[in-house]
Amino acid sequence: MEKNQRAWSHLLVTVFLTGFATLIVAPAITDVTMLALCPGTDECSLAIYLSGFQQAVIGIGTAMMLPIIGNLSDQYGRKALLTLPMTLSIIPSAILACNRTTNYFYAYLAFKILTAMICQGSINCLALAYLADTVSYHQRASAFGVLAGVTSGSYLCGTLAARFLSTGSAFQVATFVSLFALVYMRIFLEESIPAEQAEGITQPILSEGEEDVSWKDENAPAKMSAFKRIPSPWDVICLLRNSPSLAQAAVVAFFNYLGEGGMESSSMYYLKARFHFNKNQFAELMLISGIVATISQLFLMPLLVSRIGDGRLLSIGLFVSCVYAFLYSIAWSAWVPYVATALTTVMVFAPPSLQSIASKQAGPRDQGKAQGCISGVSSLANIIGPLIFSPLTALFLSEETPFHFPGFSIICIAITLMIAFVQSLMIGRAPSNTDGENNSDGTEA
């Protein structure tokens, strides 16, 4: 147990550092983009189109790559696969840390698109699989909640640090912290999968490839075996068909993140048009949400999940998310969004609970595959959400609206979240594929 606690602490430090490095540069990206593409102006269509293209390509890439990364981590271990995204994530911030002229920005954009298809979401996916390897069946929801709380805390600290750093310093700090996180992970984090539980875990990823550098025909089966370890879309479909509860969890994830993606892309424009919010008020909402989410996930969720279970906690979180979106849609005063933000206390229960349910439907050799599947579905929903709800928001905020209801797109988001809530009630107490399989690691509840 003490060994596992040390492993968890090293993992949480790694996740915190990577999240901090990501968020410390987020507020500066818009200004850097505008300065590089349209210097001296406040509007830039090229920046908007490039940002939309970047988001779409990255979303499609992550939807395809996350199941593959999760599956490979089942074969070669979480630590080995964590090294890849953590290394690649250093490159974009390092480019802008050197210079932020137009040529450097285009280099950053190219590398950001290529690296984010592997990096975005994969660290969290692998961290969830790592915890599932080392945490007992009954403690996973609490552990996933703590991980989500640490992630929220890193975002909060990164946002606050960005407020006091110059643009150049922010990218330099992000590069240093990313590099430090990689070194820290490689030195202190221990591999989570014992060698006897997964094939190839004791060998480097490239070891079979080195053996394959031969033109002898007898090596062809080895090549084919290694190639088959990379999942196809049909493998993911088979995984979902063999586990009805995992398939239901994927449906819940799709509609939940469809609503969340739409909310993220629409809510700020809605509040600006409805109540003339500015960046200071948006920052206040983000800080309130971040503080409440961190405290709730770190301290409140572990207490509740042990009493009512992750299934009920998932449904409660999704129902409150519906209420949150509904309040936004009918907001009659500027103080209503501030009150609605307090509901984040309960809303943040949904993602860790969903990940816990998915984890319990997979055996020890399939944790990466299960988390990669859910993460891939979530990434796909995050692409579709803005494509649906952003134009709808623009339509009902314009003068050509079919009828006067500025929050119509937000109430459509509430309906989407309600579908996720109803589906969560159907998951039920399905039998787990991991009952008793964690008893061998000494982490019983």
From TrEMBL:
Transmembrane residue ranges: 7-26, 46-68, 80-97, 109-131, 143-164, 170-189, 285-306, 313-332, 379-397, 403-422
Lineage: Eukaryota, Viridiplantae, Streptophyta, Embryophyta, Tracheophyta
Protein known as: Major facilitator superfamily (MFS) profile domain-containing protein
Topological category with respect to the lipid bilayer: Multi-pass membrane protein
CDD domains named among the record's database cross-references: MFS_SLC46_TetA_like
Domain of life: Eukaryota
Record keywords: Membrane, Transmembrane, Transmembrane helix, Transport
Compartments it resides in: Membrane
Domain Major facilitator superfamily (MFS) profile, residue spans: 7-432
SUPFAM superfamilies, A to Z: MFS general substrate transporter (SSF103473)
